[in-house]
Amino acid sequence: MGSEQQYIELYREAANVIRAKSCGVMNAVRDEAFETFQQVGFPSKKVERYKYTDVDAAFAPNYGISLAPLTVKPSLYLFNIKDAPVDVTPYYHKLADTSDAITALNTALVHDALLVYVPKNTRVADPIVVDNWLRGSAATMVNRRVLVVMGQGSDATMIMNDHAADGVPFLSTQVMEVFCQDGSSLDLYEVEETTPLCNRFSNVYVEVGRDCSVKHNGLTLFNGRTRNQCDVRLTGEHSEVTLNGCAIGGGDQFIDNNTLIDHQVPNCQSSELYKYVVDDHAVGAFAGKILVRKEAQGTVSQETNANLCASPDARMFSQPMLEIYADDVKCAHGSTVGVMDEAALFYMCQRGIPEAEARSLLKNAFMGQVIEQIKHEPLRQRLFVKVEKRFRGELEKCDDCRLCKS
Amino acid sequence: MLEIRNLHAKVGDKVILRGVNLSINDGEIHALMGTNGAGKSTLSNVIVGNPAYEVTEGSIMFNGRDLLAMKTEERAHAGIFMSFQSPVEIPGVSMTNFMRAAVNARREALGKEPLKSTEFLKLMRERRKLVGMDSRLVNRSVNEGFSGGERKRNEIFQMAMLEPTFCILDETDSGLDVDALRIVAEGFNKLRTAETSALVITHYQRLLDYIRPDFVHVLIDGRIVKTGAAELAQKIEDNGFDWIKEELAWEANSNI
User: Fold this and answer.
1) What is the ipTM of this complex?
2) What is the pTM of this model?
3) A252 closest CA partner among A47, A2, A57
4) What's the structural domain count of chain B?
5) Which of A125, A182, A321, B80 could hold A209 in an S-S bridge, CB 3.0 to 4.6 Å?
């Protein structure tokens, strides 16, 4: 422990600059968030939800904070929070939980925010795409804040692509708050394709009203150290939530996904499917809790975590959890950790397929189940190709990266 | 083509092959019969290079090359094919992708360009028809949900795609009804050329009615103890292996 100190000092020095670059609604909660951060400090591995991630190690190096303004291309549904078409006070920092140190630190340091606002009864045909490039000339800390407001009866698909360039270390924090109001439908994809020098800490908070359909897909294709947390609160009946994840680790990569689905009301459905392939010395962790409160009768929930450890040195931690207080529910959870199917490998090699390719075909087949469930077809096709390339070791060559080409 | 000398092999600590000698020339069909556990499958697995089997002594030459020094896939590229006794299911890997990877890997090893997509699909269609395989099966994952007969036919289909020069049929007749057996055997015969050789492992004469062997070998206790013409298979079908074992015992005694 102890890496908090530099962030405390940073805040004391830079708070006024951050304030000046920010806006009222964000500044209103800043000091309080900082106070909380000072009190709670970074979670140690003794904190249940952080038991697999070494937060202190990630935050210890000296990063320069990026205070570059957020540039948002003018679009119908995507805004810089300063140009919000509605009053965001009822939304900003209403779901985020500052008892989590990462969220508290993000709230204190973030100077700009992205707003996705889809008005009532609006169906957005094309996906709302956010391409984020981490850039810097030295080790850089980037704090990102995203607010998504899906008005009643609205419908949208949102894709967030995270990339990194410049070959320097990055530390990024993200807090995303998602409001799905009654009858809305949201398909949210987060695709990370960064570098082994990147540290990512993302906390996503979703509140779901009644008659909603919400899907979150988290795909970690290439990274350094990643921890993604996704908390979903079901607050209206007859809603449906899907959390899917695809995590591919090799080298010394680390991927931790931590989810909570909180069934607060009756008659909702939730399902989770997270698949990991860890190779070389990579470490994967999954912990997913489904909480079915006493009031949440008629809940239907299915949680699956399936993992492939492709090398003897790769490690996987899996912790599916069901906590049920209602009695009329149908819930199931399961977890598997397997190794490469040697019989299948031999069969393929006998047909002349080189072993490395046979392995990549098997890994690809294993991950296919998650990719198949991606509703947005162009993205699904693109990800099939990306995942295949990833397993062939071709993704890190960065062949479609605009920065490398130009 | 294939020259096996004094081959000893084991699985784990269990010694299975205890000095196998076998020569197969171009164009010859050899049948291998023997009691359960005699080492027939071990021999075929050693030839194709299954990493679960360890060769402790002896050599295998294939067209002048040291087979035991070659990787499994290199042996396949050299023209060796095994029709598996129990082909595995590979969920999520489509037959098309699987065959494309296999065909192009072999082409690459032989210094040929990979097949263009249209050429490849045309080849798939042709060979599928040749062995009478349902088009629905090639659109599925490898062997997934295939019946026993469909799997065996799929093995012959893959053989047709890869055009090997040396084939091992490891109990291709097991689990097949009479009609399926005939179709699979006819498929194999259609694919044969004057240069193709095969080692046919079977317990029954039935398959050998369709694929007529030039030689029949009897493997007992890790050694080939008897070799004869095609008629030997019928004699074994009628009388079992005991008479061979008795002959062996008699020879062993007379040697003392």
Assistant:
1) 0.95
2) 0.88
3) A57
4) 1
5) A182
